[in-house]
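Two quick folds needed for the group meeting slides. Do the first one here.
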Amino acid sequence: MNELITQLNEVLWSYVLIVALVGCGLWFTWKTRFVQFRMVGEMFRLLTESAVDTASGKNKDEQGKRHISSFQAFAVSVATRVGTGNLAGVATAIAIGGPGAVFWMWLIALIGSATAFVESTLAQLFKKKHKDSFIGGPAYYIQQGLHKRWMAVLFAVLITLQFGLSNNSIQANTICGAMQEAFGFSPFWVGTVLAAMALFIVFGGIQRIAHVSSVLVPLMAVGYLVLAMVVIAMNVEHIPHVLKAIVENAFGLGQMAGGGIGAAMMNGIKRGLFSNEAGEGSAPNVAATASTTHPVKQGLIQALGVFTDTLLVCSCTAFIILISGLYQHPELNSIALTQQALQSEIGQAGPVFVAVAIFLFAFSSIIGNYYYGEANIRFITPNQKVMTCYRICSAGVMVMFGALASFELAWNVVDFFMAFLTACNLVAIVLLGRYAFRLLDDYRQQKRQGIKNPVFHRSQLPELEDEIECWED
């Protein structure tokens, strides 16, 4: 079974998704007039402004009830992005595809951020009101925008299988591997503790998930980046060689570690997508929960999340591994490679630090992944018994499965569902992208008129007034 899934993954990723991902990313980059480069300053301004409002308690409605801020939605989406893909996924890509895989991870992030902007803007446009926040995502914009209920349900099922179930097994698998490498802890007991913690948080709903993520994400990201920068600074003389190896191997010139352009490209794009999720249709589910005055605001903030994930955190991991040279040892893979690479630079504290970091990274991903499934289960059915069953399976059963499953099986299952999920979402956002382009034009026009805080009303898209529940005049 594992071999069959491996072969199917190779066909899907070699001939379908690589072309689709890159093609869509380039199309959206062109149609948005390079939004991910031209509006970086606006992205940082919006995120900083929202973070300040969240810290000061200003994210409340007229009745004094807290809503999900743009910063909190950003934190939850980054929590799912910044996880095993940054530490274990990067290591796997380099071990299999060579240093050149890093180049393709960078490329998919640069062009994929335009895709992330489009899908998150659409999620905001078609979001619906929920009891303690908004709710939305690809299933909602497929149904409201394309009027294809079957396709919306298909997406909802796929994302629940991918994120709520199989993806959580990867997070648990990586945490257990790191804990065993650093402390010798039994995967069974680590998995048991993880499941208990995750169940406690997910039964608290999106408010508790958002609160935990807004605390964990800045803490873990800043701590890991500081350590990585110290290691890179200590080895600054090796950086030119590392960059040369990345570029040469990306185009099959170096042939290091059995790489070549095919292996480097496939593994770089696969692990890049797993890490930054651009185009996969996951981040829009949490992007829709934010309360903001214009859909484009959250689209810009979510696009920034792709840069944060791949160009910062993934690059730090890649540089540490390439500086160490340990990627050429075939017996090292996944999180063990990252731990050994860091140990070679800072001593015995390296594996311990990575174990703690991956625990924070992957645990925050578990609770964020869970919410993606919850939002889509609610789209399919309001039955609370189904939701309770899903919570137990996502945060309990699949976490334990990942703790005890083999590394290869866990990753193959994730890649398989990720391929179909991404294909479904790409079709939808290509067909609906024109609305995101119009919203971006409106936002830019308001900014040119000197309006610091652009506002959108559904009457501005008269053909969609009956399909848009929020954004009243």
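Then this one, please, same format:
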Amino acid sequence: MVKLGNDWDGILADEWEKPYYKQLHSFLKSEYSSQRIYPDMYDIFNALKYTSFSDTRVVIIGQDPYHGAGQAHGLCFSVKKGVPLPPSLVNIYKEITDDLRVAMPEHGELTGWARQGVLLLNTVLTVREGRPNSHKDKGWETFTDRIISELNKKEQPIVFLLWGANAVKKASVITNPKHYKLTAPHPSPLSAYRGFLGCKHFSKANALLEQNGIETIHWENL
């Protein structure tokens, strides 16, 4: 049983006992004991720990964690202070700067977003070192579908930012017409120039929140 320390504990109480999750847990136990896996096992669920269900007003969905040493810490696209900004995050900061005309911090720790109600969720929550997508199709997609389906039930509108093909697939789980789905290519240097840069998702998200009487996100506030 995982303890998240907020309302997600009650919402997900039955998830840890499901056969698929028990299988995933066994797989992870083996992986963490025999391979170098990111993030640290105590950081896997940080997105849910930092941003409660009730506080969530924006969801950013990425692919899987950074696969380099010292990078991933359980929040999609985020790295701890002191860690060089990965290329995807450089592009995210570039888009925010161009979109909102605000200066971004030099560090890449996005906990300030999480505390404002931005759920920073990857579709897959673990990865082998140097092997992106190595934990794909092991059960995490079912788990993150459950997270999104619970958020889909909320009456208060949520803005979902879906970046990259794996994230865009999650759009099918978001069926409540109260919510908003903004899609773009992944901010990786391989795809950012195909439509992530210039997407203006940050100003659009704030405009959607504002028109629904919901407090906007201070994207520069980290």
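Slide caption for protein two: Helices lie at 8-11, 19-34, 46-50, 87-100, 111-115, 140-152, 165-168, 201-211.
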